[in-house]
Design goal:
Blueprint (H helix, E strand, L loop, with lengths): L1 H22 L3 E7 L10 E7 L2 H19 L5 E3 L6 E5 L3 E7 H7 L1 H4 L4 E4 L2 H10 L1
Parallel strand pairs: 2-5
Antiparallel strand pairs: 1-2, 1-6, 3-4, 4-5
Helix pairs in contact: 1-2
Length: about 130
């Protein structure tokens, strides 16, 4: 029963983060399910990008604010808030990567986890992903 509860909690974190990113108009939202990948560092990666350093920072702040307000979850670790090119929010089972678009194109995190199931949020995001390949 504990395992099922943890899965439900993780899904709640993913859904809350997804809503926060959509509300702030994040670009190219990809939810990478890593649960079936052996030795994965977390259950989910959520990858997205913003249109400027201000937008990237706003996306990160919105995720932290909404997860705190709605489900009382706080990131275990935050990286990249100073340079705002790649912000990482680590919720343990869920890790959020918020990029500047040029950094996302350079690192191509989705391609590193090609064996995982990836959910793209919104039609625009799917079209952008197809254009990258």
């Amino acid at each position: 029963m504990v395992f099922l509860k943890r899965q439900e909690e993780t899904k709640t974190v993913v859904d809350t983060i997804k809503k926060a990113l959509v509300e702030k108009k994040a670009k190219g939202i990809a939810i990478i399910n890593l649960k079936t990948i052996e030795n994965a560092v977390s259950d989910y990666f959520i990858v997205t990008h913003g249109t400027s350093d201000t937008h990237v920072e706003a996306l990160a702040n919105e995720v932290v604010e909404k997860t705190g307000e709605k489900i009382e979850a706080t990131p275990w670790h935050i990286e990249g808030m100073k340079n705002k090119e790649w912000i990482l929010l680590d919720y343990s089972d869920v890790v959020v990567h918020i990029f500047q678009s040029y950094m996302r194109d350079f690192y191509r995190i989705e391609e590193l986890w090609a064996d995982a199931d990836i959910e793209y949020v919104g039609e625009e995001q799917t079209n952008n992903e197809n254009n990258r390949k």
